[in-house]
Specification:
9 helices, O-phospho-L-serine:2-oxoglutarate aminotransferase activity, Aminotrans_V_dom, 2 domains, alpha/beta, three-stranded antiparallel β-sheet, Aspartate Aminotransferase, domain 1, 360 residues, Aspartate Aminotransferase, domain 2, binds pyridoxal-5'-phosphate
């Protein structure tokens, strides 16, 4: 089989060492004679997995004791509803910073439940400069998307929202750099980029935000249900949690998130430097807002035929999923934690080769 580098935005590449371990343990987990997928979620073996996963993510992100870690289902998209159902309950006002397609989806969902205001309109493709005065002090919460997967922008400064809880969709940059969890009331992320296989959704929520949902909120959509049951109210996505635990161990083994951030910066710099010098391609994003995780790029001349030729050659060379999101076109290289430096280097070398062939 020819080697493949998978630049998918999600589900995305997993660390090769983790996949090898999954393979080795797949049909006989810990001498149980059963696959980890077959274990009861109430068994000692699975309880050890979920407890260890929680301890590891607490350590990696230095999560303070007054936060609960929940392993849920439904994807980040379900959080678009769970957040307002649980938190839009005081003034019934919330502020949403719209920086991309996913934040817009979160906003559209929240609008169903209260008075939701857009902060920093026209900020698709760039991160707005926000101060505490940008926000409604009466709001129940402020929502941001810390990394915009489709557009390729990132918040490098977390806005100060004062006493108003900050809620963040971190689906596409969680665990890529250290963060100060105490700046947030609630963090959520679908697993399928930097955490593990699709199926599990991570929620980190401050204690005081749990248990406020009105009676009418479905049991499964109430954070309290899952907090009380330590994420075992019903059958959790056991396999996804198991692989996530292995990914957390892999991250710890690398040296944690400070080391991961250094590796991510190294990879992203290589690609952005190439694009900034390229005669054919460019990054459409201002330097200060560029994502370390998702790197969209387009033909400088807007030449779609050239982009198609580039993508065709990429596929022949084993570079998978480089096509930009259908809403924006062009190319997008998602270079999450598990993408090795060699993968980005191979892509950069291909860009150089493609340019030389076009120019001759
Ligand atoms: N939020 C962001 C930033 C995303 O990148 C995605 C998926 O790519 C989602 C939300 C939706 O996630 P899910 O498919 O887990 O619902």
């Amino acid at each position: 089989m020819k080697p493949v580098y998978n630049f998918s935005a999600g589900p995305s590449t997993l660390p090769a060492d983790v996949l090898r371990q999954v393979q080795a343990e797949l049909i006989n987990y810990s001498e149980s004679g059963m696959s980890v997928m077959e274990l009861s979620h109430r068994s000692n073996l699975f309880e050890a997995i979920i407890n260890e996963a929680e301890l590891l993510i607490r350590e990696l992100l230095s999560i303070p004791d007054n936060y609960k870690v929940l392993f849920l289902q439904g994807g980040a998209s379900q959080q678009f509803a769970m957040v307002p159902l649980n938190l839009l309950i005081g003034s019934k006002q919330a502020d949403y910073v719209l920086t991309g397609s996913w934040s817009k989806k979160a906003y559209n969902e929240a609008k169903k439940y209260g008075e939701v205001r857009i902060v920093g309109e026209d900020t698709i493709n760039q991160i707005p400069k926000l101060t505490i005065d940008s926000f409604n002090p009466e709001a129940d919460y402020v929502h941001i998307t810390t990394n915009n997967t489709i557009e390729g922008t990132t918040f490098y400064q977390i806005p100060d929202t004062g006493d108003v809880p900050l809620v963040a969709d971190m689906s596409s940059n969680i665990l890529s750099t250290p963060i100060d969890v105490s700046k947030f009331g609630l963090i959520y992320a679908g697993a399928q980029k930097n955490i593990g296989p699709a199926g599990m959704t991570l929620v980190i929520i401050r204690d005081d935000l749990i248990g406020q949902a009105p009676q009418s909120v479905p049991t499964m959509l109430d954070y309290q249900t899952h907090a009380t049951a330590d994420s075992l109210y019903n059958t959790p996505p056991t396999f996804s949690i198991y692989v996530a635990k292995l990914v957390f161990e892999w991250l710890k083994g690398l040296g944690g998130l400070t080391e991961m951030e250094a590796l991510n910066k190294h990879k992203a710099e290589l690609l952005y430097n190439k694009l900034d010098q390229s005669l054919l391609f460019k990054s459409p994003i201002d330097k200060q807002d560029r994502s370390l995780m998702n790197v969209p790029f387009v033909s400088k001349a807007g030449d779609e035929a050239l982009e198609a030729a580039f993508l065709e050659g990429a596929k022949e060379r084993g570079f998978e999923n480089l096509k930009g999101h259908r809403s924006v076109g062009g190319m997008r290289a998602s270079i999450y934690n598990a993408m090795p430096y060699e993968g980005v280097l191979a892509l950069v070398n291909y860009i150089t080769e493609f340019e030389q062939n076009q120019i001759i």
